[in-house]
């Protein structure tokens, strides 16, 4: 397929160069005018424009019917339905405008085709028309932007009643780590300069910070259904992007700063595996893998899991930078979290007991937080 596409591109480039050379040749004084398009040529091109319009519409409708199900599935987060509604409205507007403008464009190309002794009707300017095609798109875009801003505020606003779980997503070429705040629900200070592989301090946590002692570092992301989760995101090396498509969530992970996103999972992994759309896709994948196994290739049966992906091209293994996400009941989540080692125990340190006064203190300023990577 790649070779075929490359050949098509080369052929199209060659045709474009050939046509440009003909245009240049005809523009020269004393050039042979026999190659200039006549009325018959223009009429043929007008009909070809209609033929291309029909092809464009048929291909677009077929693509939507054939592959439309791959765009979005059942949303697995609280804000997902609102996100899907905004996207659906945008698509409807784009398709309606595209259908109308493309039809007019190809119709005018036929109606006002070149004919000997005929001049096309044109307006040097028309204030009313310019007002219409400026104001209507502006109002439409303003509506979409305002809808999007309200949606963004609803997603990112965190209230005291939410009582969210705090999780850090740590990106590095080419894997993810998750760090859960301990019983205090406060992440300890961290900085890439504190990374010490020899001591297994792989995320650069500050060993002297009592808030870091009960943090838990994992290679799987477990989330309780129906509970708000606030993600604090860091990158060790280059720009990454934490992308969780089923939750309609994405946020860049930028070296030297902390970014944030939050959502509430609404569908457990077990329930999503029973979703009709997911079942259909899993069956399709397993059919392909069964065919591969029949040919002697190594292809294990596939089972659906939520995934955390990197949506920035961050290097040669970017495609494989992913982490499994498991959404489960709160009881199952608490049971799993209890089995994970704290930072203090993995480092052989003693967890310090924090008083209520200590918990209430603001340990660093915003400027210090940015420098130290404090969450």
From TrEMBL:
Q: What is its main location?
A: membrane
Q: Does the keyword Transmembrane helix apply?
A: yes
Q: Which PROSITE patterns match?
A: COX2_CUA, COX2_TM
Concerning InterPro entries, the annotation shows: CcO_II, CcO_II-like_C, Cupredoxin, Cyt_c_oxidase_su2_TM_dom, Cyt_c_oxidase_su2_TM_sf
Keyword Electron transport in record: yes
- Could you cite one Gene Ontology molecular function of this protein? cytochrome-c oxidase activity
What EC numbers are recorded for this enzyme?
Answer: 7.1.1.9
> Where, by residue number, does the polypeptide cross the bilayer?
6-24, 44-65, 85-110, 131-153
Q: How is the cofactor bound?
A: Binds a copper A center.
What are the residue boundaries of the Cytochrome oxidase subunit II transmembrane region profile domain, all occurrences included?
A: 64-159
Reported cofactor(s): Cu cation
Gene Ontology terms: biological process: ATP synthesis coupled electron transport
Q: What is one cellular component GO term in this UniProt entry?
A: plasma membrane
Q: What general EC class does the enzyme of this chain belong to?
A: translocase
Topology with regard to the membrane?
Multi-pass membrane protein
Q: Which residues form the Cytochrome oxidase subunit II copper A binding domain?
A: 162-339
Q: Where in the cell is it found?
A: Cell membrane; Membrane
Which reactions appear under catalytic activity for this entry?
4 Fe(II)-[cytochrome c] + O2 + 8 H(+)(in) = 4 Fe(III)-[cytochrome c] + 2 H2O + 4 H(+)(out)
Alphabetically sorted, this entry's keywords are: Copper, Electron transport, Membrane, Metal-binding, Respiratory chain, Translocase, Transmembrane, Transmembrane helix, Transport
User: According to its UniProt entry, what is the function of this protein?
Assistant: Subunits I and II form the functional core of the enzyme complex. Electrons originating in cytochrome c are transferred via heme a and Cu(A) to the binuclear center formed by heme a3 and Cu(B).
Family indicated by similarity: Belongs to the cytochrome c oxidase subunit 2 family.
| Stated name of the protein | Cytochrome c oxidase subunit 2
Protein's organism: Neptunitalea chrysea
